[in-house]
Automatic annotation (TrEMBL):
Membrane topology field: Multi-pass membrane protein
InterPro entries attached to this UniProt entry: FtsW/RodA
Catalytic activity, as annotated: [GlcNAc-(1->4)-Mur2Ac(oyl-L-Ala-gamma-D-Glu-L-Lys-D-Ala-D-Ala)](n)-di-trans,octa-cis-undecaprenyl diphosphate + beta-D-GlcNAc-(1->4)-Mur2Ac(oyl-L-Ala-gamma-D-Glu-L-Lys-D-Ala-D-Ala)-di-trans,octa-cis-undecaprenyl diphosphate = [GlcNAc-(1->4)-Mur2Ac(oyl-L-Ala-gamma-D-Glu-L-Lys-D-Ala-D-Ala)](n+1)-di-trans,octa-cis-undecaprenyl diphosphate + di-trans,octa-cis-undecaprenyl diphosphate + H(+)
Keywords: Cell cycle, Cell division, Cell shape, Coiled coil, Glycosyltransferase, Membrane, Peptidoglycan synthesis, Transferase, Transmembrane, Transmembrane helix
MF terms in GO: lipid-linked peptidoglycan transporter activity; peptidoglycan glycosyltransferase activity
Enzyme class: transferase
Protein name, entry field: Probable peptidoglycan glycosyltransferase FtsW
TM spans (from-to): 13-36, 48-67, 73-96, 150-182, 189-208, 272-297, 309-328, 348-369
Localization: Membrane
Keyword Endoplasmic reticulum annotated: no
Similarity field: Belongs to the SEDS family. FtsW subfamily.
Naturally occurring in which organism (per UniProt): Chitinophaga eiseniae
């Protein structure tokens, strides 16, 4: 055990945040799924708790082994990941499992496990963009040599994700744009990227209407209409129940396990788990969750500043940005500051592949942090030896 702790490196604050969010996840998932498990699993109320415990345990194992790998290896993995993501996303659109009119999942035939291919694509494209940004800093102001090799892969991935998962595609595009902005891509190029994205959305709606395949576009239109409509009778059911849960939470909440809206709130264990947390732990609990993600971002910005190599710096910042933006989006949806999206709360919502790929992203961030930590240690040891040598030389001169 001591050996395992000794080999666990990286930013200790990030490790603490991971443990904190995992514990919150177990408490919230158990509370939100107790009655559901009782109905569906013949009284076995701990079924989903145990399932989430296993998934989070696997996630911690992934974080540990990912952070032990030298982050420069991920530069080579990025290319393979990007190339593999394209056929996976195409296969998902054509043959994936359909849930709520959306084809987002692939079911593995032997172990009967489903996972979202967009999770693979998100992780791969951030590693790929970080690699390209680090390699093209000397030509970053050149549209053909600097910008196009970065943005074309992003556009391909977003277009393939968009038909089944518009919110994930928009989140991915926004996160990549922010990373490109930090990577000194000219603003005029990014403005063109926004225009191209808007055109892609319009074309997709037009193609869906012409072809008669309007099931998902109607869902998006309904969500946007209910968000901007002042008529409260048109507020979606899940939004109404989330509002009731938040109003009932108050400052300190009703206490762990005392949520009443969990029995009425759809997806109280995933998309709307933040509303469940607010009901049970109040605004204080909500603030702690928000503060944890903000602290994660601040620590990753610190890693970005300290990392001497561009790839590691962009990698740590890019992966943290997408996790925090996803978390903020989920929380904004729960408190009705944003239209319904279906994005889970990273490391907190009940899930399988989403938790595992989030863990992989955090492991990569910690790999960069470990490298920075080791370099700082070597630099400190070098400075100590120089001081010792200087002191010895001074003593010899005096003698």
């Amino acid at each position: 055990m001591n050996g395992l702790l000794y080999r666990t490196k990286g930013d200790k604050v990030i490790w603490t945040i991971v443990i904190f969010l995992s514990l919150v996840s177990l408490l919230a998932v158990y509370s939100a799924t107790g009655s559901l498990a009782y109905r569906e699993r013949g009284g076995h109320t701990e079924y989903y708790l145990l399932k989430q415990l296993v998934v989070l345990g696997m996630g911690l194992v992934i974080i540990y082994f990912a952070h032990r790998v030298n982050y420069t290896i991920y530069s080579r993995v990025a290319q393979v990941g990007f190339l593999v993501s394209i056929p996976l996303l195409i296969y998902t659109l054509a043959f994936g499992s359909h849930i709520n009119d959306a084809s987002r999942w692939i079911r593995l035939p032997i172990i009967n496990l489903t996972f979202q291919t967009s999770d693979v694509a998100k992780l791969a494209i951030f590693m790929y963009v970080s690699r390209q940004l680090s390699r093209r800093q000397h030509v970053i102001n050149d549209f053909k040599k600097g910008f196009l090799p970065i943005i074309i892969p992003v556009g391909i991935i977003c277009v393939l994700i968009m038909p089944a998962n518009m919110s994930t595609a928009l989140l991915l595009m926004a996160s990549c744009m922010l990373l490109c902005f930090i990577g000194r891509v000219p603003v005029r190029f990014l403005a063109g990227m926004v225009a191209a994205g808007a055109l892609a959305i319009v074309l997709m709606f037009a193609i869906a209407k012409i072809s008669g395949m309007e099931m998902r576009t109607k869902t998006w239109e309904k969500r946007l209409d209910s968000f901007v409509n002042d008529d409260h009778t048109e507020v979606p059911y899940q939004v109404q129940q989330a509002n009731i849960a938040i109003a009932g939470g108050g400052i300190l909440g009703k206490g762990p396990g005392n949520s009443t809206q969990r029995n009425f709130l759809p997806h109280a264990y995933s998309d709307y788990i933040y509303a469940t947390i607010i009901e049970e732990y109040g605004l204080m609990g909500a603030f702690l969750i928000l503060a944890a993600y903000m602290l994660l971002l601040l620590r990753c910005i610190r890693i970005y500043k300290k990392c001497p190599y561009a790839f590691g710096a962009f990698l740590a910042l890019g992966l943290s940005v997408t996790l925090v933006i996803q978390a903020l989006t989920n929380m904004a949806v729960n408190v009705q500051l944003f239209p319904v999206t279906g994005l889970p709360l990273p490391l907190v919502s009940m899930g399988g592949s989403s938790v595992l790929f989030t863990s992989m992203a955090i492991g990569i961030i910690l790999s960069v942090a470990r490298n920075v930590e080791e370099m700082e240690g070597k630099q400190a040891e070098k400075e100590r030896l120089e001081r010792v040598m200087a002191a010895n030389a001074e003593n010899a001169a005096v003698a």
